[in-house]
Amino acid sequence: MSDITLLAIESSCDETSAAVIQNGVILSNIVAGQEVHSKYGGIVPELASRAHQQHIVPVVHEALAQAKIVKKQLNAVAFTGGPGLLGSLLVGVSYAKAFAKGLGVPIIRVNHMQAHILAHFIDDPKPAFPFLCLTVSGGHTQIVLVRDYLDMEVMGETQDDAVGEAFDKAAKMLGLPYPGGPLIDKYAALGNPLAYDFPHVDMPGLTYSFSGIKTAFLYFIQKQTKLNPDFVAQHLPDICASIQHTLIRILFSKLHKAVKETGIHRIAIAGGVSANRGLRKTLEEEAAKHQWETFIPSFEYCTDNAAMIAMAGHYMYEKGLFEEWTFSPEPRLKI
Fold first, then answer.
1. Residue 24: Cβ-neighbour burial (10 angstroms; 0-12, 13-18, 19+)
2. Phi/psi class of residue 31: alpha, beta or left (left: φ > 0; alpha: ψ in -120 to 50)?
3. CB 95 within 8 A of CB 8
4. pLDDT, tens digit (0-9, with 9 covering 90-100), for 194-244
5. Which of 194, 149, 185, 188 is nearest to 275 (CA)?
6. Could you give the domains of the chain?
7. How do residues 13-41 score in pLDDT, each as one tens digit?
8. Coil, strand, or helix at residue 95?
9. 32: which of 46, 54, 176, 221 is 20 to 30 A away, CA to CA?
10. Distance between CA atoms of residues 268 and 251, nearest Å
């Protein structure tokens, strides 16, 4: 059997990424970030799409060069079809279509959230099926039952904000630069996670909600700074440790319910927030306590990257799951 070689493109938000995979092995994974958003305190969609246009050609060329693959070796082009920012997705989808059309090869539309989960199959150890995956990012928070590579069911998800957004908004309230989530994680390591208690709503079943805790945190900061203008500067590590502890506690309260409902003790985490050290440490502690078998991707495969799109594309290629040329991006695409 000849080699199966794919080019993959990821452009759902503010990272432009391209990767090459051959027979299920990642040969290259190039990611270009976008510094332009830092001064605005968040992603500006129009600026993101323009930056993708600037980055996508050199990123693809570098991915092919690093993999030592020439265009004529490619069997298909995989790309993120959603969810994500419409303008950003349009750049990646349009480029993938044109690139594949020029080569006469098919295109493969990949669900961004499924790809985050399939990042677990890039390196060893790889989870056996079935397993539960806590998928956490700036735009999504889900508990997914994974029965097979392409057979997944969302058991629970947030009804409003994602946990990654809660981290970033809390950081913004503290005056930390964007992206603030990693900075909260950094300062949290130096603080007392039980210093402050933040109220939150416990939703029924496996449903998450993070809008309430963001409001409670805002009122807390406003109240404390009114009493002491230097409160945040004087207590930053404790504040960060406490809000991180609360957000992680919310995540695990539902995960425990999912484990109880399914009886599955193989637990994975995926998505940008899975790079959070506090979350990883908590998963390790819970695993030891409850005899869970746990799986965490390498840091480079937690945030948005094309390697995970390539891995999903590989399994879809094996099934012959190619996309029609008339496909348009779907910003709210569901698993």
1. middle
2. beta
3. no
4. 999 998 888 999 999 999 999 999 999 999 999 999 999 999 999 999 999
5. 185
6. 5-118+302-318 (3.30.420.40), 127-296 (3.30.420.40)
7. 889 999 999 999 999 999 997 666 566 66
8. helix
9. 176
10. 13
